[in-house]
Design goal:
Blueprint: H1 2-14, H2 17-22, H3 27-39, H4 45-65, E1 74-79, E2 82-89, H5 92-103, E3 110-117, H6 123-143, E4 153-157, E5 160-166, H7 170-181, E6 188-194
Parallel strand pairs: 2-3, 5-6
Antiparallel strand pairs: 1-2, 4-5
Helix pairs in contact: 1-4
């Protein structure tokens, strides 16, 4: 119990003041919030970004305090109240627990569980292989005339590669997947590039 309190206190101290203030509205705001909610769109803007950031923080905290998961191996991202879990876990049970925890967070609309199962005894080997895959992909993208300056973010989890970022051309998005599939060791490509 004391450990959970210390973790909560540490995270609260690390949050920017704007996040903390956004979570404790004044009495005047509380009175008008219900009326405003009926006319306000449900997504977009700084308000949604703040809500998404708060959902991400609450999810990470819950993963940290729940004994069923090793939160340091799990990446959490939220966009439009949809939570994305990425990384490596040691068992099916840990993968399921992480998804259950994320679904239990207030405000979460959906959870996309892209966690890869890697037993602890294979972790170092898989991490080294993923690092090599990421390096090879970066080199190929830098040498590709169409994708050279695209600023594509790469992540490899147990040889499943995720591509993120913004790209201007639908053909370039498809081409990026083709380039990545050509890298030895890549099992699958998750192309999350936005147009």
């Amino acid at each position: 119990m004391r450990r959970a309190f210390l973790i909560l206190a540490t995270i609260a101290l690390m949050l920017p003041p704007t996040v903390l203030l956004a979570q404790t509205p004044s009495p005047e705001v509380k009175k008008t919030a219900k009326a405003d909610d009926a006319t306000r769109p449900s997504s977009g803007g700084a308000g949604q970004t703040m809500k998404d950031s708060w959902i991400t923080t609450k999810t990470k905290l819950s993963l940290t305090t729940d004994g069923r998961t090793k939160a340091r191996h799990i990446s959490v991202e939220t966009q439009g109240r949809a939570v994305m879990l990425r990384g490596k876990v040691s068992s099916t049970e840990e993968r399921t627990a992480a998804e259950e925890i994320a679904r239990g967070i207030s405000g979460v609309a959906s959870v996309n569980n892209a966690l890869q199962i890697v037993p602890d005894d294979q972790r170092k080997t898989v991490d080294a292989k993923d690092d090599g895959i990421e390096t090879a992909i970066r080199e190929r993208l830098m040498n590709d005339a169409q994708l050279k300056g695209a600023g594509i973010k790469i992540r490899s989890d147990n040889s499943v590669v995720t591509l993120r970022g913004k790209i201007s051309d639908p053909k370039a998005k498809s081409h990026a997947s083709d380039v990545v599939r050509g890298v030895p060791g890549v099992r699958a490509v998750r192309n999350e590039l936005a147009l």
